[in-house]
Structures are given as structure tokens and as C-alpha cells.
Amino acid sequence: MDAFRETFRLDVNAPDLHGEIRALRARGPVVRVELPGGVPAWAVTRYGLLRELLTDPRVAKDPANWPLLTSGAVPEGWPLVNFVAPAGMVTADGDDHRRLRALVSQAFTPRRIAGMRPRTEATVRSLLDALDTLNGSPVDLRLHYAYPLAMRTIGNLLGVPPERYDEFRALSASLTSSATAPDEVLATRRRLLALLAALVAEKRARPGEDITSDLIAAREDGDRLSEDELIGTLLLMLVAGHGTTLNLITNAVLALLTHPGQLALAVTGERPWTAVTEEVLRRDSPVGHFPMRYATEDIPLAGEVIRRGDAILASYAAAGRDPSHYGPAADDFDLDRGPVRHLSFGHGAHFCVGAALARQEAEVALPSLFARFPELSLAVPPETLTPLPSFISNSVRTLPVLLRA
Question: What keywords sit in the KW lines (predicted)?
Fold first, then answer.
């Protein structure tokens, strides 16, 4: 770790993620950073460079390429271990990744996602009806709207029993925090794996109309997902499938309520709600820094050399506000920006398989919310909102609003 002596220590609680990213960017396009426990990595702060790295054949996802992990230098209870250790699509490369993605894609088809829209619309209507009964006091829109929509959608898709939703949510929040204590990391991992193993056993015994059942049955050239690959894939889909959408909807409502002129453009139809979704994904990526990729050989990049075996963070939040790509007004929330290309769902072979579902949920939830509650407003000054304690998950802990004036 001596090579990383002059590093930028990322704050595990991320009280000002974008302020920290500006400080990183001021150091250069490729910055050596220190993760929890003194673990070194590289952060790439430029859109163009990150986009290149995400398809660079010298960059891998398999943690077998990370000597710090394979040598035992990274402790078992390291807060980010659940992002780098699980077997499955997210940590596979090359032919292995293509095999796993092909199996997953048999269950996660565009046709299936498109067919879910009526259910999404029905869920949104029921949640808005429930919000109506809470009128009077400030309502936490993250807890009472964004979370149940995201969790019910992915839970139903995977066949998770509704009585387990809140437990999965709590465990997912623990997993995505970069400040989680080692004993909690281990306990969270054990509990999540046990719950998913029980779900798999239930679906093997009684298959249903859900992706878990489909993944169990999925074949490609006579192949099946192994038990570890199956559970690792379900873990990814559960955590990313609700956490990303939860943050996206929360961040979108916050952006619109703090930019009334932009909100008016969307509500009046002058700008499409798809533009709102894409601008929020760019400016307030649901994921800040995503671990982890690894250099499989020395990579000269922007005046630095990422050495073979070094870890790399995909800094999506940094790429989304990169002024060298989006101009000097990159920090602004602007629906007049035009077609927005961003990296918030990744790029290349590991592009998020659930991107279409997340977009669908946001593009139903947002116009429906503002149509039902046109006087919706923040109940507290925006500067008093508390960020999530994570440089991975980018949003706020709560979003208190007044439904009516």
C-alpha cells in the first residue's frame, strides 16, 4: 500500500458527496483514493475516461484479479466486501459473464418488463391513495412512496414474500452503507444469503411466475446457474433492483421541488418526463462510486499508471457532473440540456440489466405524483436533509414533504 501514500481518503459517511467529488476532480482525472480500512483504489472522475475503462479489455470484474483480496489483506468484514465477493454475473468476465448474462436474460426480457407497466401503474395508484390518508403532517416520501414502489416491484418480480420486504430493505441499506461495522457486515451477509437460499428452496419446491423460478429452470446449451451463481445473481438484482430505483425517484422529486421552473416544464408537458428521468440519472446518479474493477495489466491513463492488480472505482456521480463533457453548467438541473448520455447504468458488457425497469417505474411514479398532489412541497429546507451514510448509494435518508399547501 506504500504506492498509495499520497491518497485522497473518501469519507465513509459521505456528508457531501458532490463536494468531495469536486475536490477529487481538482486533483486530476484519475485519483488514488483510500477506502475504508486503508484499502487503496483509483477513482476516475472524467466521463470520457470512465466510459473507456468500462469497455477496456485490460479491466476485469473478477476479484481473483485483486491481490489484496486474494492474499487476505482485505479483512472478511470489510464494508464493501458484499460488492466484490459474491459469485454471479456482476463479478464475472468474458465467456463466463456472457454465459451468466444469457441465462439471466432469459428471465429478464424486454417483453416481460413492458408487460409489467399495468402492475406498476396499479401500485402507484394504490400508494397515492395511501398518501392521501396521511395528509396534514409532513410525509416522508422516500419511505411511503419511493421505497414501497421499488420494493414491491422487484419483490414481485423475484417472488419474494411481501412479509420479507422490510427485512430485505433493512439488510440492503446495511449492505450499501460504506460505514457499516465489520460485525454488522458479516451478520448482514449471513442473513441475506440465508433468506435468498430459503427463497430458492421454496421456488424449487413450488415454482411460480417469477424470475427466481425462471432462473432455476434457465438453460443455455444444457448449462444451469450454480447455487452460488444463482444466489449471487439474486442478491445483485434485489439490492440494485430496489435501491437504484428508490434513490432515482427520491432524487428526482428533490430535484423538481428545488427547481420549480423545471418542474413547471414537466408538469405542463413542455418537456417529457423521460427527460426528467435522464437528467436526474446524469446529475444525481443513484450510485456514487461503484466497487470494483481491477487492472489485469499496467494501464497508463491521464498521466498516471494504474498497475496490474490495482482496484478501480466506477465513479458514476463524478462522470455525471463532469464539466469537460457536460460543460460549465454540469451541476445544474436543466431539462433543456437535450438528449442526455450518461453512465449511471454502466456501459458495455456490464450495463445494468434492469435499466428499463427502473426507467419505467420513474416515468410512471413522477407524473402520477405531481398530478395527484400539484401543491407538493418540501417540508424542510433542502440544506437540512441528511445524505445516506454511503459513497456507494447516493441519496438522502428521508424526504419530508407537505402534500398540500
Answer: Heme, Iron, Metal-binding, Monooxygenase, Oxidoreductase
